[in-house]
Design brief:
Blueprint (H helix, E strand, L loop, with lengths): L1 E2 L5 H10 L3 E2 L1 E2 L13 H4 L16 E2 L2 H10 L5 E2 L6 H8 L7 E4 L2 H14 L7 H13 L6 H6 L2 E4 L5 H11 L11 H12 L12 E5 L4 E6 L10 H8 L3 H8 L4 E4 L9 H11 L3 E4 L32 E5 L6 E5 L10 E5 L7 H9 L3 E5 L2 H6 L3 E3 L5 H10 L3 H9 L4 E4 L1 H4 L2 E4 L11 E7 L9 E5 L2 E2 L8 E3 L8 E5 L1 E2 L13 E7 L2 E9 L2 E4 L7 H13 L3 E3 L2 H5 L8 E10 L5 E4 L24 H11 L3 E6 L12 H10 L6 E4 L5 E2 L5 E2 L1 H11 L3 E4 L1 H12 L9 H9 L4 E5 L1 E6 L10 E2 L10 E8 L4 E6 H11 L3 E4 L13 H8 L6 E3 L6 H10 L4 E4 L1 H4 L5 H10 L12
Parallel strand pairs: 1-6, 2-5, 3-4, 6-7, 10-11, 14-15, 14-16, 16-17, 17-27, 18-19, 29-31, 29-43, 31-32, 32-35, 35-36, 36-41, 41-42, 42-43
Antiparallel strand pairs: 8-9, 12-13, 19-24, 20-23, 21-25, 22-28, 25-26, 26-27, 29-30, 33-34, 37-39, 38-39, 39-40
EC number: 3.5.1.2, 4.3.2.10
InterPro entries: Aldolase_TIM, Class_I_gatase-like, GATASE, His_biosynth, HisF, IGPS_HisA/HisF, Imidazole-glycPsynth_HisH, P-loop_NTPase
GO molecular function: glutaminase activity; imidazoleglycerol-phosphate synthase activity; lyase activity
Length: about 900
Amino acid sequence: MSKGICAGKHAIAEYLIQQGFQLLELADKSQSHTTEPADDLRLQESEIRRKDDPKSLELTFQDADSLLDFATKRWQERWVTTDIADATTLDRFLLRPFFLLVSVDAPVSLRWKRFADRCWRRQLDPPELEKFVMWNDHNLYDKEIGRVYLTDKAQVRLFNSSSSLEELHSALKTLDLADEQRLRPNWDQYFMQLASLAAQRSNCMKRRVHGAIAGMEEESVSQPASVFTPKKTHYWKQAGSGFERGRSYIVIPQVGISEVVYSQGYNMDNDPYYKQQACGYDNFTRLRMGSSIFRDLNLNDQSQPKTNDLQFDNGGAEQFDLIEENYASASVNIRITAGLYQSYSMPTVHLLDYVAGNIRSLVNAINQVGYDVEWVKSPEDVKNADKLILPGVGHFGHCLSQLDKGGFLEPIRQHIEAGKPFMGICVGLQALFQGSEEDNDVPGLGLIPMRIQKFDDASKSVPHIGWNSAINTASDGTKNQSFYGLRPTSKYYYVHSYAAPYNPDVLEKDGWSVATATYGEEEFIGAISRGNIFGAQFHPEKSGVAGLRAIRAFLNGDQFQSLSQDLVTGKEDGLTRRVIACLDVRTNDSGDLVVTKGDQYDVREKSGADAGGSVRNLGKPVDMAKKYYEQGADEVTFLNITSFRNCPIADTPMLEILRRTSETVFVPLTIGGGIKDTVDTDGTRVPALDVATMYFKSGADKVSVGSDSVFAAEDYYHAGEKLSGQTAIETISQAYGKQAVVVSVDPKRVYVDKPEDTHHHTIKTQFPNSKGQSFCWYQCTVKGGRETRDIDVRQLVQAVEAMGAGEILLNCIDKDGSNSGFDLELINDVKAAIKIPVIASSGAGVPAHFAEVFNKTTTDAALGAGMFHRGEYTVTQVKDHLQMEGFLVRQFEAEI
């Protein structure tokens, strides 16, 4: 941080320290502001107050190079320093991508007043204003020590005219200096910089306007393009009526551009032709304001004026509470005041995150329906919230205890009692009840006089994972009425072991609207509503368009809707058969991330022009995930089969794939590969839980543990079937719930003459080998099938179930890439051994294979890969075939 004298650098540094930053200092801070040594006492800077820390001496360095080296090795932690005072040192720091330079300034008269107050506190005589100005000029413009160079290089410039620390802290909280996008621009910001550069060649006389056509599927720029002016015209009026002002708004959707992102609006001429064409434009192309720096502008809301200059109103706040920031991603400076941003702000909803798993997908879903998110970080934020969403996954007791420990329960109760809109998701719904069998010692909010109970696993898999109904139970003639956009023909994604059992008409008599689902023989509450309260046991952010519809209805306050007769009569209750698309992702020989598919785990070409070892390239991960989502895939699984050994864990390319995929794919995402205790490139040990957390924060709903689960199972049996509490499966499931942990199993057949020839569990197979042996056992492998272990598949799945795994992804090396159908014997053997759900994988080549596995086994889901990647069949065709065979499936909904 750099500053003028008494601009507030230390006050801001102290605020950051309160937010978890640590102070880095130089031992030698000597720097004279004057030519008179007697004045140095008055100019001596105050010591920065920081939290008591026994390690503080370790954070003082003899020179800037040592300080920089220390921070570089620990770049993922948060540091602040105020001791960078020369241009040469600053240039070295600016080379680091984790370094953010913040400059602070304030009016000279205000800084002089602050300086005088500081002198009085030190029992010193303050200087005259003229002398203070001379000191200030020396501090900024002296050839040797002048700091104006530092100010010019700042990525963030703060204008601190606050009259108190409270006002300053409030403004800093809004500003959020720790936002990572200030260091690494998102794609909106990146392309906006290119557009700003292109605008220097704009020929429009009203404003420098230009754009960049971005091939977002490739994340690269195809070409810069002038959007608002035609070629070969020197200024706007020259286009005349022949250009038909505003016609470029019509051209945009015609050439296939689905979205326009802008940083500054463009106020077109107010003629009838433009108004007519602009209305048509809104129907074809989404228009939004770019980057998280700006508030989104919902132009579909006709109540908002379609003027284009950014306007900020201080809402009556005094002008001294002004902070100005220069965002590198935009071509304008923005003034943010303590007042309100009026007319152009996207409507907001408050979201309470208490480490509830994949919160990114919920934020993306909220953004998708036209709302912005404000985070609840303290109980006071709940009191200020209008609409509040409480998400949640995992253990009831843990979630409620965390809320209670943070002081949130009572403010949430007061929010609901005040009649403000409240939505609870999954455990957020369960929190409304008196309590849960999952933890009898922890009470809920008690708004619903019932308790949550565990599903009976005697005849079905638990957790309940998959797509099920939410059908209105009304018996008073209002069955044709939906609440919060729920439709009896739609399916919603559930993942839970505990639920509220449904007792007919009990809650309805108390004014509740109830929608139910059925799992096995048990009918339970899928959603509930009364007045300002809406709760969903399912995850709307993972329920495709059907879930987005529910979120939008809640945020818009659209509680009840009438349903057409076809939506009422076409309902089918119950759990659907899940069809999952799997993408094996690795780098090819050119270093590009591609989707590939192997034959018995060998992903290199065997024939054709690329024969001889080239990695089979079947497409780009993000593009293919979106394609499968739009074909109706119930889940998308990414299996990372590249180690990225030389890449810092926080920069693993799979994280970016998840971030980008979760922006447009609203079904569950699973990521596998590398979920284990590991060592980062700088030598730092990273536990498996931390690795999983990075994936959850990037958009994953489940993580898949592979080889590490085999080693953990071996240790489990060696310890006499005792849990250590330290395995990846145990730590992740304890933190995020068992439904968040998938174990990927890679077994292969080992034939024997008779069961007595091995101590492993064997089956009598209908497919003897070439030697006529008709007994086999399934041996588990690690390292992508390259190494076998002395443990069979039954031992493995039973061990990981005991550790807390919520689902088994059951591969089969013998069937991989064969297109001959699933190994039904293996699936039935595993299903008989455990209670948790099983996903059948390996061998699917035609839609009939999916019908076969659902007919002849009790598998909970089936996964396909190569047949989809090669374009031989689509997910839609598989589901159509299943439906024709009498299976209940979820069909993709395209329109909200």
